[in-house]
């Protein structure tokens, strides 16, 4: 499998991600939104967006590993952060770029501020698509 990441002429230079990711893989994995839940299903880090980001990263790495993939196989991410998280969306972006999942965010990525997510106290969620290795 080969991934090609590019920024077409005429588009702005993005901060770390690419506008387009092309995958030659015939198989893909679509992860459910990864939430800051522990193995018991409880939201971690009540009110602490960084603790929640760290849990989302751990959950995403586990989900990718379950299908033989890793961060470098990710072709698209969508990051959702609630208004209640405090700070800036950029703070969440930088935390993700400092995590073991960082290579995933060099692909096509979108960062969104939202008013609410599915679980009470949830501040962040990550949607991931990966091209599976042959």
Automatic annotation (TrEMBL):
<dbReference type="Pfam" id="PF01042">
    <property type="entry name" value="Ribonuc_L-PSP"/>
</dbReference>
<protein>
    <submittedName>
        <fullName>Enamine deaminase RidA (YjgF/YER057c/UK114 family)</fullName>
    </submittedName>
</protein>
<dbReference type="InterPro" id="IPR006175">
    <property type="entry name" value="YjgF/YER057c/UK114"/>
</dbReference>
<dbReference type="InterPro" id="IPR035959">
    <property type="entry name" value="RutC-like_sf"/>
</dbReference>
<dbReference type="GO" id="GO:0019239">
    <property type="term" value="F:deaminase activity"/>
</dbReference>
<dbReference type="GO" id="GO:0005829">
    <property type="term" value="C:cytosol"/>
</dbReference>
<comment type="similarity">
    <text>Belongs to the RutC family.</text>
</comment>
């Amino acid at each position: 499998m080969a991934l090609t990441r590019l920024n077409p002429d005429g588009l702005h230079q993005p901060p770390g991600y690419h506008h387009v990711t092309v995958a030659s893989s015939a198989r893909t994995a679509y992860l459910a939104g990864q939430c800051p839940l522990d193995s018991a299903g409880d939201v971690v880090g009540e009110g602490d967006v960084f603790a929640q980001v760290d849990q989302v990263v751990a959950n995403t790495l586990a989900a990718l590993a379950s299908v033989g993939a890793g961060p470098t196989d990710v072709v698209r991410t969508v990051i959702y952060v609630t208004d209640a998280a405090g700070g800036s969306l950029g703070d969440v972006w930088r935390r993700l770029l400092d995590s073991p999942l960082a290579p995933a965010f060099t692909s096509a990525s979108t960062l969104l501020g939202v008013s609410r997510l599915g679980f009470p106290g949830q501040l962040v969620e990550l949607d991931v698509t990966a091209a599976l290795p042959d």
